[in-house]
Amino acid sequence: MTTSKPTAPLSAAAGKSTKKAETKPVVTRIADNKKAVFNYHIEERHEAGMVLQGWEVKALREGKVQLTDGYVIVREGELYLIGCQINPLRTASTHVTAEAARIKKLLLHKDEIRRLMGKVEQKGYTLVPLNLHWKSGKVKCEVALGKGKAEHDKRDTIKDREGKREVERAMKVHNR
Predict the structure, then answer these.
(1) Beta bridge partners of 82
(2) Which among 134, 145, 115, 112 has a CA at the least distance from the CA of 52?
């Protein structure tokens, strides 16, 4: 009579670790500011947290936000987002007065804020919001340091975009 030895589990036998694989947080876009990319040369991008009220978070989940007229200012060593419209839901709380154009505070490290303050004080630089997105269940705002484009630069951007479209159309027709 032969006795069999107990076998190890397959995962350990295969040399696989049982640790959970670290996954990157899923980033879901809420709103984009395409006008900012058109109007500014983007030099730096920073991700900032936002201080929001409950009704604003609910409205963001529904996509009721407009970011095109938004801009960021530095006041007393803190960043604020102005001009970002978050339209309240009709079913929002009745005991809170919803203000669509409320000034929202942005959360960033002090060192980054100081560095951005120095750059914004230079002529021609400004801070613009590029997009709002969800990251790990929190709303984040991507803020960019940009320098205003001249009118001829904007025309060049349009010309390049139209040229790319024509090339794509020609390739599409050629591949058929």
Answers:
(1) 71
(2) 134
Instruction: Encode pLDDT of 123-169 as tens digits.
Output: 778 888 988 888 888 888 899 888 877 777 778 888 888 888 888 88
Minimal CA–CA distance to 142: which of 108, 174, 168? 108
CATH of 27-148 among 3.40.630.30, 2.30.38.10, 1.10.760.10, 2.40.280.10: 2.40.280.10
Instruction: Look at the chain and count its residues.
Output: 176
Pairing type for strands 71-75 and 78-82 reads antiparallel
pTM of structure:
0.69
- 3-class state of residue 106 by DSSP: strand
Q: Tokens 């349009």, residue?
A: 158
Alpha carbons 47 and 140: distance in angstroms, whole number: 6
Cα 27 from Cα 44, distance rounded (Å): 19
